[in-house]
Design goal:
The chain is built from 14 helices and 13 strands. It is of the alpha/beta class. The chain has two domains: 200 residues, Rossmann fold; 167 residues, Glycogen Phosphorylase B (Rossmann fold, 3-Layer(aba) Sandwich), CATH 3.40.50. The strands form two sheets. Strands 3-2-1-4-5-6-7 form a seven-stranded parallel β-sheet, with helices on both faces.
Length: 383
């Protein structure tokens, strides 16, 4: 298959970008011809170049709603698709999903949209959620299939009237393995905690810092990996809580797997999610995970088995669960082993790729069948 993968931005690098990169590399490995279409710059593009994945960089595609820019971006997407003539357009992230599906429909190219967490999920401001709910309902009929990365998101789409059962499919995220030396040793003391997350409203660093503020009597250190507009306010909160000597702000890192290998506990406090890769990365490393039970997090992490789930903003429960792990190296090791096993059984890259490409193949085959039975349909698709 000739596959075009469209994602809104190359920066900042998040779950959607990593997902697209891994799919593109897997597609090439399976004999397909992938091309990534995106905007922006940064490490994501360098990654693709290193992997010899062709990239088309657009000038006008961006996340905020802007009628003029969106019109220009649509024209750029159209030109790219007319040049590439893909068998399938796979769209990722909200804006790319909306504009990409519209253009693909006009060109009679089958499109699949992967929702990496809906923009109307619980935790998002009601006005914004309402707007995107309407937009997604309008865009859904332009999709041959919609992939959700969690059962939570599939059910949310059904409840919101986005699409019917037959148009929706859940494919959990999967990630490649790491070398054995990148496995953590969670039983080591003193315990180092790590949270990998951008400093933005979606994430909830403050709850973690307040919880740790009540655990100063126990030995621990915390690494915060990521950048974003709220970093300064979190640095100030660390000073206010008197945690300055225990918390390190490491910025954006290209060696996250190495930082996880040096840690003993992984934490993700957040306000909303789809199916976060950072939880899978921690489980792959053999770390116990403490995470907020939003979106599909509970589908990855089993409470009390491979880690702990907490409610959104629940400082008291988070402090209790972290205290248990900090005081018990054996518990950390046991939960870390169980998390690693769960990742091996359910969330490897091979499982995700097999399920995703089965959907792609089915969509392309249906399009070709429709094209043979109805001359003029799917004219933009190569045979």
């Amino acid at each position: 298959m000739n596959i075009a993968l469209l994602v809104t931005r190359a920066d900042p690098v998040g779950g959607a970008q990593i997902h697209v990169r891994d799919l593109a590399v897997a597609a090439r490995g399976h004999g397909h011809s992938p091309t990534v279409i995106t905007s922006g710059s940064g490490p994501f593009l360098q990654d693709l170049q290193t992997q010899q994945i062709p990239v088309v960089v657009l000038k006008h595609l961006g996340a905020p709603i802007s009628p003029v820019r969106d019109f220009r971006a649509s024209r750029e997407i159209r030109a790219a698709l007319q040049s590439l003539r893909p068998d399938l357009l796979a769209t990722h992230s909200s804006k790319a999903g909306i504009l990409g599906r519209f253009v693909a429909h006009r060109l009679q190219i089958p499109a699949v949209f992967t929702a990496h967490g809906w923009s109307f999920t619980p935790g998002i401001a009601p006005a914004r959620a309402g707007l995107y709910r309407v937009i997604e309902r309008l865009a859904a009929p332009l999709s041959s299939k919609i992939i959700t990365v969690s059962e939570f998101d599939r059910r949310l789409a059904l409840e919101a009237g986005i699409a019917t059962e037959d148009r929706l499919a859940t494919v959990h995220n999967g990630i490649p393995d790491v070398a054995a030396q990148r496995r953590a040793r969670p039983g080591r003391n003193p315990a180092r905690l790590v949270m990998v997350a951008r400093f933005e409203p979606q994430k909830d660093h403050a709850t973690l810092l307040h919880a740790l503020g009540g655990l100063v009597g126990q030995p621990w250190e915390l690494d915060l990996i990521g950048e974003g507009p709220l970093r300064g306010s979190m640095e100030q909160l660390v000073r206010t809580l008197g945690l300055g000597t225990r918390v390190r702000f490491l910025g954006q890192r290209a060696d996250v797997d190495a930082r996880l290998a040096e840690s003993q506990i992984s934490v993700l406090t957040t306000n909303w999610e789809g199916f976060p890769l950072t939880v899978l990365e921690a489980m792959r490393a053999g770390l116990p995970v403490v995470a907020t039970a939003v979106g599909g997090v509970a589908e990855a992490l089993e409470d009390g088995d491979s880690g702990y789930l907490i409610g959104r903003g629940d400082v008291t429960l988070l402090r209790d669960r972290l205290g248990r792990l900090l005081s018990s190296p054996g518990l950390r090791e046991e939960m870390g082993r169980k998390g690693r096993t769960r990742w091996e059984e359910h969330f490897t890259i091979e499982q995700m790729v097999a399920k995703t490409f089965a959907i792609y193949q089915d969509v392309v085959q249906q399009s070709r069948t429709a094209g043979r039975s109805s001359p003029g349909v799917a004219a933009g698709v190569t045979a």
